[in-house]
Amino acid sequence: MGKPLMIQEDDDRRIERLKRRLGITTKIDVVRAGMALLEMDALRRERLERWKRAAARVAADSAHVNAAFRVHSRLKRL
Predict the structure, then answer these.
(1) Do residues 22 and 30 make contact, with C-beta atoms less than 8 angstroms apart?
(2) N or C: lower Cβ tally within 10 Å for the chain?
(3) Residue 52: what are its φ and ψ, rounded to 5°?
């Protein structure tokens, strides 16, 4: 059922401080909240990496299309 986890004294004190500051009742809930934040951060980093790859793939074509539109720009005619 449960898995034993060895927590260092310093980490235990940090968990206890977080419990009080955040109003969380158990140590495991503090750990779960931390893991949830880490998962959200990992997902965000993965999403940014996908966006960078997608932007790199379409950059040349996008520059070509933008250049074609600039020829007909209304701003140049003002």
Answers:
(1) yes
(2) N
(3) -60, -45
Residue 75 has pLDDT above 90, yes or no: no
Q: Residue 32 has which token pair?
A: 């779960």
Give the largest CA-CA distance in the chain: 74
The token duo for 26 is: 């158990």
Q: How confident is the model at residue 55 (pLDDT cuts 50, 70, 90)?
A: very high
DSSP letters of 7-67?
Answer: --HHHHHHHHHHHHHHT-S-HHHHHHHHHHHHHHHHHHHHHHHHHHHHHHHHHHHHHHHHH
